[in-house]
Fold this protein.
Amino acid sequence: MANPPPPPPPPPKNHGDGPPSPPRPAATGWPRYAVWIALGSIIAILLTTTLITPSDATDVAYSDFISQVESGDVLTGEYNNTNGEITFTVGAEEFTTVGPIPLPDDDAALIASQVEFKYDTPTPNFLQQWLPLLLPIGLLILFFWWMQRRAQGQMGNVMSIGRSKAKTYSTERPGTMFDDVAGYDGVKQEITEIVDFLKHPERFAEIGARVPKGVLLVGPPGTGKTLLAKATAGEAGVPFMSVTGSDFMEMFVGVGASRVRDLFESARKMGKAIIFIDEIDSIGRKRGAGLGGGHDEREQTLNQMLSEIDGFEGSEGIVIIAATNRPDILDPALLRAGRFDRQVVVPLPELEDRVKILGVHLKGKRTADDIDINVIARGSPGMSGADLANLVNEAALFAVRRGGDKISANDFDAARDRALLGIERDSMVRSPAELERTAYHEAGHALCAAVQPKNDPVHKVTIIPTGMALGVTMTLPEGDRHSLDKEEAEARMVMAMGGRVAEALVFGEFSSGAANDLQQATSMARRMVTEWGMSDAVGPMSLSENGPVFLGEDMMQSRTTSPATQELVDEEVRRILIESEDHCRDLLVEYRNGLDLIARALLEHETITGSEVDRLIDVSRTGPADAAESVGAQPAEVGSGDDNG
């Protein structure tokens, strides 16, 4: 039969949206270890052929040799003067033996016989003669050669330490487009000009317009700044060079500046390119800040970068995109016109953006029919793109743990609770008295949040230890919030005071469980007085102490407020906190039946939903008797929610 034709070669892989890349040619030449294998084989052959000589002679004792000589059976013989080996023939057979060195000439039997006997002194060949001498010398030469190669490698690493560590992606590698970045239509619109400039520079040259050389992406962590930079390079179809700010820093002086020069030199060779510098605040901090005049190596690196971006040498066709979440600490020279003169804010995604981001991350995952992306997006305010990706992954993990084959809405609720609250510690053992105190503490929070219209709706209340807390009262806003009025701030402080006041009202004393609540309430009251101008006594003044982050600048500056003003601020903060506590106490006294019902429901079910809290408060208005009977009438499912947010 004829042999079947060979299978066709696999198609070349395409990493992007461009044409398929040609197949990589096969490696040619001998591998590095082939030389050593060949050398070892030659040496082994020489040693085998030299030292091993085939012989068919039979070994006998020296006394047998003498007996054969005396009997006249030995025809011929040969004596080796070097090792005393005697080779002789008896008839047609050949024998060998070893005699004394030297062979005694007065051996009567040997002399009296008529044997044709020869005395031979063999001369060793070249390998046998010089191998014992050349082998140590060769090993020494090999050792010194290895040391020289090692030294050259280390010297090469030292000499190449100033090279840029940027990862270069060709026009086929970015592969990320604006369509792959869900949401952020406004941000994409601002970056579109850069894409147009890199694609059609002649349009800008005809009018005389100049595209910004540097674009600074500012936003919280996880909002997709790096992904937007890759999408810009993918849309423009130009090489993309990615580097982080920490890659420029090294223990050697001048390495950072050298790497900056090498980075821009490599970009100029490409003609058009996008340089992306992530976490630029690590090298772009204000110069001369801090004790001792700052960091000299970092400042030299920054100086070199400033000159490369907008110095004597032009960088036409090169666009620099940097990302940071701390723009307030960057050097002013870095943000001036001609350098990073355009700042693009990448904020946390809004509701519409969260819907699109969740749709991207849910692709390829098996979901149940009860999942509504809009409900999940409403219940995840303040989450970044990375948080939403983690939320989808956690929901998938919860589905696997319960043995399901699809991700359900309950899995998303459990994943959201874990992301916002933490891991439940079911194994923690508490006494009945401590459990009752925790129940009333969380009931106070939940009641104050539910009866105040300005507060966010209660989503879930639990006395199961979660994270570092013994219990949690969780609220979710009905929509995205961007500002806070005075009544909303006061409602939040009243809710924070609810647990502490409830303990004092029921047990007649306070506990240490309200430490975090007091911190939140005090921080809110101080911001109302010093930042938001919500105090009539202080007036419309900003007394915020959130100044420079550098110790040196902070020490050199003097305070702008007098001791009398500071005392007034403290008095106002104390007054606001006391008023909030009094208002909280009035609410808990008015709704005392509801407080008891919520606490009893928590002791019975450990976890109740926001709708159950509202129902118990409504039932408490009917009277103590009916209220007592309704606690177990509608038990809440642990972990379920009404999706208020």
Q: What stands out?
A: Residues 126-159 form the longest helix (34 residues). Residues 351-420 form a domain with the Helicase, Ruva Protein; domain 3 fold (CATH 1.10.8.60).
